[in-house]
Amino acid sequence: MAFVHSKQGRVLVNDKHLSGRINGWTVAGERNLGETTTLLDDGARFIPGLRAGSINVTGLFDGEDGDIDETIQATDGALDGLLTTVLPDGFTIGKPAFIATSNLSSYTVESSVSDTVSLTVETTPNDGVDHGRVVHAHTAETATGNTATSVDNGASSLNGGVASLHVTAASGTTPSLTVKVQHSVDGNTFVDLITFSAATAAGSQRRTVAGTVNRYVRETHTISGTTPSFTYAAAFARR
User: Fold this and answer.
1) pTM
2) pLDDT by residue (tens digit) across 141-179?
């Protein structure tokens, strides 16, 4: 058994890698329950209902470009304004990833004469929090290709899935990046499962898919332009 130290965690929000400004996070997944208890039952009975959850972060306030404050203020009041992917054990392919599209519910900046200015951000996801795996580490790519390592689920699944893409940097002349999540029955022959819209600058996207997801998944990317470079991370969660 390999335990994970909190210092390994990484957090992506929209087009920002904010791990250098965040010092703590909390992910909660919930399922609302509907009670079905009747007079003939000896104990309470329930049926599963809607998915819910929360993603909250704590960090340091600096007020500069790329700060958490800037990211939050840019999305305040926007529906589904925050695409967040939390990676408890870093960016290695196959490591866990929590994915959620959220609305800002609380934002607090706190100061003490004896400490640094800190902030706390609380968000409420639409459609719950999905638990998946990293399919592309947060690294730069300059040419078309795919990840050499696929993620093995051990078996296929039937309920579709969710993918997140965070492009944190882009450069070159007319650069373009199209990222796909592919799946495979045998780990050798892959077909497209999810296709993100072409990215030409920093940004983020979330996509869903229904139906069967085969046992293996991987990321593939097509890059064009003159001296293009894209730094990004991608994750996929089965449902």
Assistant:
1) 0.94
2) 999 999 999 999 999 999 999 999 999 999 999 999 999
Is 1 contained in some domain? no
Write out the residue range of the structural domain in which residue 94 sits. Answer: 6-238
Residues 195 and 85: their CA atoms lie apart, in Å, by 18
Contact 153, 238 (CB under 8 A): yes
Q: Which of 66, 54, 49 is nearest to 168 (CA)?
A: 66
User: In this structure, is residue 141 part of a structural domain?
Assistant: yes
CA-angle at 85, arms to 218 and 6, nearest 5° = 105
Q: Is residue 196 part of a domain?
A: yes
Tokens at 58, concatenated: 């704590």
**72 in helix, strand or coil?**
helix
Q: How far apart are CA 144 and CA 56, in angstroms?
A: 35
What integer is the mean pLDDT of 217-226? Answer: 98
What is the Cα–Cα distance from 101 to 13, expressed in whole angstroms?
A: 10
Instruction: Decide if 72 contacts 104 (C-beta within 8 A).
Output: yes
